[in-house]
Design a protein that fits this description.
476 residues; single chain; Serine Threonine Protein Phosphatase 5, Tetratricopeptide repeat; mainly alpha; 0% strand
């Protein structure tokens, strides 16, 4: 089910993505129109979770503004959902899952915080094999769910379980189980979630990106290292892979054996099998950012190998097409991982870089890039580069004063004249020159020139500024 959901997310038509971008740009100016556009996105692509999340947030904001921050219960209570449930149930029985979701979606437009309607929507998405749609809605409304309403939390736990996010499923179901210890269905699902979730050691390794921390002892590390280094032929690899498979049979939850197998496959350029091994590891640990990154790295390596083979064969046209396909994969993969891990500030930075990279194709991508960099600048690791790229975005939009604000903030973090500081000074000089502030431009360019005369075209820049200053003084 999770694989199906991820596959369909990659097929959102560009026209719907463009409509989504327009809707987000209209949220402050005309929220009703923005909600209408987001609603069309959700109905056109039930699997477009980003659009649905934005729709739900906008609906809730409008609702709370209208009701002065209070949640008003539906006067009809559960009776108000009787006939909609009948219609939705009929659509589900006919196999029309997306139409059923659309009907449930319509019910939330005017009352997105009605818990009965939220439950109905989540249950409908679950029955229609669209769990991500229900999860994204519950994630948005959960802060408004009364603490005593464990039935909604149970639905969320089931949705997490269905998409193999067993750790979060366990967190939800544990709370439900404490409130309803006699609920047999919840007890069984909780037990399954606990079995499928990983140990504390693996979670620690996942957070750090160091899978070795999940190994039980030093001897196991050395054994895996020796195995990988001993691969010289395909026969060697096959023997070691078979040995790893045997170990997996004995310890099916030891993710390091899966990752060792990935390394063995990559040495033989058996990319599809390496990707399958990562998927097997995912089935053990559930959703995990480190495994997602590993999968993307292998996929990109596979693209690069195909491109190199095509070029070696003299097929430049197909090599160029494969490069486009690779770049599209990179963009989509980062965007999807941001959806899964919205609090990962480095992922936000990477997505901002992608929007900036393609902003020459669509000017609206500048605002998308700015939105991501505004989040990623909170990360000490990415703060300076985020500020610098924000400045580039503002420069491209013609907002030079705002660009200077970002660069000034970046300079506060750059005590030494390294490459990063030279980049900031260079952009400062460009902006000053564009505003005919030649003395200021000269100051920034000369600082770079003193540090590194080979930096970009700095020598020519300095000479040009001298000439412009001289011409300006002669006019005076």
């Amino acid at each position: 089910m999770a694989e199906e959901e991820n596959a369909t997310n990659r097929t959102v038509p560009q026209s719907i993505r463009n409509l989504h971008i327009k809707a987000k740009a209209s949220l402050e100016r005309n929220p009703d129109m923005a909600i209408d556009m987001l609603f069309r996105c959700a109905l056109s692509c039930p699997f477009f979770t980003e659009a649905r999340t934005d729709l739900r947030k906008a609906e809730i904001a409008r609702y709370l503004q209208k009701h002065k921050g209070k949640v008003s219960p539906n006067p009809l209570g559960a009776l108000g959902t009787v006939f909609p449930k009948m219609k939705i149930s009929g659509l589900l029985k006919k196999g029309k899952g997306d139409e059923a979701i659309a009907e449930a979606e319509k019910l939330l437009r005017d009352n997105p915080l009605d818990i009965q309607l939220v439950k109905l929507f989540a249950e409908t998405t679950f029955a229609a094999n669209r769990p991500e749609a229900g999860r994204s809605t519950l994630e948005v409304v959960k802060d408004h769910i009364p603490p005593q309403d464990v039935s909604s939390l149970a639905i969320l736990g089931k949705l997490y379980f269905s998409i193999q996010d067993y750790r979060r499923a366990r967190e939800c179901l544990e709370r439900v189980h404490r409130a309803k210890p006699s609920d047999a269905e919840v007890s069984k699902m909780l037990k399954d979630a606990e079995a499928l979730a990983t140990s504390g050691k693996w979670e620690e390794a996942s957070e750090s990106g160091d899978f070795r921390k999940a190994l039980q002892n030093k001897a196991q590390v050395e054994q895996l290292d020796a195995a990988n280094k001993s691969v010289k032929t395909a026969d060697d690899a096959d023997k070691l892979i078979a040995d790893t498979l045997a170990k997996i049979e004995k310890e099916p939850k030891n993710v390091n054996y899966y990752l060792s197998r990935v390394g063995l496959y990559l040495q033989q350029k058996r990319y599809d099998e390496a990707l399958q091994s990562i998927d097997s590891a995912r089935s053990v640990v559930g959703q995990d950012p480190a495994l997602d990154l590993r999968y993307a790295d292998v996929k990109i390596e596979q693209f690069d190998a195909k491109i190199a083979d095509l070029r070696a064969a003299g097929d430049e046209e197909n090599a160029a097409n494969m490069e486009i396909e690779r770049d599209q994969y990179i963009f989509n993969d980062i965007a999807e991982r941001v959806q899964r891990y919205p609090n990962d500030q480095h992922l936000r930075f990477l997505l901002g870089e992608q929007y900036w990279k393609y902003s020459h194709l669509d000017a609206s991508y500048l605002d998308e890039a700015l939105q991501q960099f505004q989040i990623s600048q909170r990360s000490p690791k990415d703060r300076v580069q985020s500020l610098y790229l924000m400045a580039l975005c503002f420069q491209k939009k013609g907002m030079l004063d705002m660009a200077v604000e970002q660069l000034t903030a970046a300079l506060e973090q750059l005590p030494t004249m390294d490459r990063q500081k030279m980049d900031v000074f260079y952009l400062m000089g460009e902006i000053c020159e564009a505003e005919n502030k030649l003395d200021d431009a000269s100051k920034y360019f000369k600082e770079i020139y003193r540090a590194d005369v080979t930096y970009r075209d700095i020598a020519d820049r300095v000479q040009r500024i001298y000439a412009a200053q001289k011409a300006q003084s002669q006019k005076a």
